[in-house]
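REQUEST ID: PR-0412
SUBMITTED BY: lab tech R.K.
PRIORITY: routine
TASK: structure prediction, single protein chain
INPUT:
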Amino acid sequence: MLGRNRGGLGLALLGLVGCGGREGIPGNEPVQQKARLEAFGSCEALESYIEETAVVDMRTSLERSKPSYWKGRGGWFGGNPETSDGAPSPVSSPTSPGAPASDSGGGSSGPGSHTGTNNQVAGVDEADFVKNDGTRIFVLSGRTLYAHRSWPAESLRAESSLTLEGWPREMFLRDNKVVIFSEVYEKPAGAGGGAGVAAMSDVACAPMGPCGGYYGAASTKVTTVDVSNLASPQVTGELYLPGGYHNARLAGSSVRLLMRDAFRWPTGMRWSPDYSQELWADEARLEKEIDALKQQNEQLIRSRTLAQWLPEGRRKRADGTVDKVGYDCRDFHKTNAPTKLGFVTVASLDLDIAAEQAPGRTTLLTEPGQVYATEGSLYLATQHWWWWPEAGQKDHTYIHKLDLSQARHARYVGSGTVEGHLLDQFSMDEHEGVLRVATTIATRVSELNNPWGRLETTNRVSTYREADGQLKRLGQSEELAKGERIFSARFLGNKGYVVTFRQVDPLFTFDLSNPARPRKVGELKVPGFSTYIHPLGDGHLLTIGVHMDENGDWRSRSLKLSLFDVTDLAHPREAHTQVVGSISGWSEALHEHKAFNFFPAKGLLAIPFTDWTSSYSGDYWSNFVSELRVFRVDPATGFSPVGGLSMKDVYQTVNYPQWSYYYSPSVRRSVMADDYVYAISDAGVRVSHVSNLTQPLATSRFAPVTYTSP
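STATUS: complete
OUTPUT:
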């Protein structure tokens, strides 16, 4: 609702309109080679920036819905005509180290050693829906927290359960405190519900945008639970912050919660005229209607207040009273680089201080991207934003570094521009102050009859160091595997490993001892590809991926474990392999590193596994496989299958409609403690001795998840 104080900002943004040769569509902006963030000096400046940016984005979206826009771009509402280089899209990968050492039997005080979350960086815990400390296992399933006594193993049982608000996503366990992150979709004004609820949800949904529809925009609820009495967990804190849950890290007592949020468009915004056959048949009239919508929407945007764009959070006290949790406009940062619209907030909470303390917040006005964190730094990567594709474009990514030395504040340090895009968090690593980045570089090249050009790819490793507010490039490797894409990466000390794929899996090894000269020193080609790389001592890599014949025939597909000997970095070799299951075999560990569980103390690897046998008899359940597969891993002898801990029977009474993206009939995680193996799914927890996995010692079954309104 700012009609003044826009200054040069409004003129600069509005100056973009028409650069592309059409009113309402900004021209593609060049890559910003000196990316930086700038804090807002006042709430007026922040409101002005949001307002002007929203107008440009709204006009662009509506302009793209015009028939004239699509003519020459694949037809009236024609799909994207782009073609790629033929490489299949990579399965998103993950990774991490993971467990203590020592040996023990089955005493009641606790196991001698056990596994935890498979974290990328030692000392930095990553949130997950399963957490354990050797004697207790906590699991989020549906909207319930299940608290288990897990030691002695044969006495596994759920001591209690706690129903949670919204959709619990992940959590941390620290001593006797569980911190749970849930997404809460609160009803917008006029949809019923209490006062305070509507204030956080006065929104309309952009086309294909991340909006909660009837249930409004997402908030992240942080629920703190005291579990010192496992049979009676007590909620000690409830904090609501605007924005959906994205990610979280825990180092010491400091939680870094990352939330993402789209623009909260005003109620009444419309993204297309009301449909009628006559209107859609008359293109000239349709385009006039769209132009009229632009004017109506702009009036709504410019009448909106900052409090409506950026609602406050709230804290619910134990006595039921509610306190507002505000924000400081000076903690918001804009970028000088073109990125997709959105908000990314890093909320910092110290678990060692009173729950009533408001979190420190640092917000970037950009879309969320890949996150990498050490104990002292957090890196957020977001891609350069092109308003539309055209020949000559090349992928670039902006990486912003935040300092985490203060427990309750993330301080902006500097930014850098990287050629290409990142696959996942393992594409970044910091070692001795140097950031190493693995990227796939996609370039659009001209092609006859394709106005958007075709994509050509190559790959590279680059190094950066922060100086004077910039992440300055120190060096870069040669280009790798043209026509392929990165499917996994891992940096370990002065060494780096990158896997690309098109029809075979080249594993590239790098010497990173001189940051100014990251150097490829070895290459090995094997069929298929690895999606996750796990360190096994100093000279070996343990990977999971997919086997495929060199001809690319997907009928030859199967899950594959590999042991690579990288003792001689210049001559890596695939020392051992293990094919798992049939063409239908699948594991969540293919795309989620937290599902990959290696137990160094026992030399055991556990992966969730789902399959369907080929001889289908008409009874789905008789052919369904849902189990935890366990292998002994030895660098000298390779893989020795131990067996499978099945959870198939747990799902035989679960109806198909109850399966969803957050609840499925698959083993998803595992815990290993001494000689015992625990399989964890959305339906329960089961434990067996490693010597006899087919004979469960105990099973904890969860109540089936039911579908009800949030």
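NOTES: The first strand starts at residue 17 and ends at 22.
REVIEWED BY: pending
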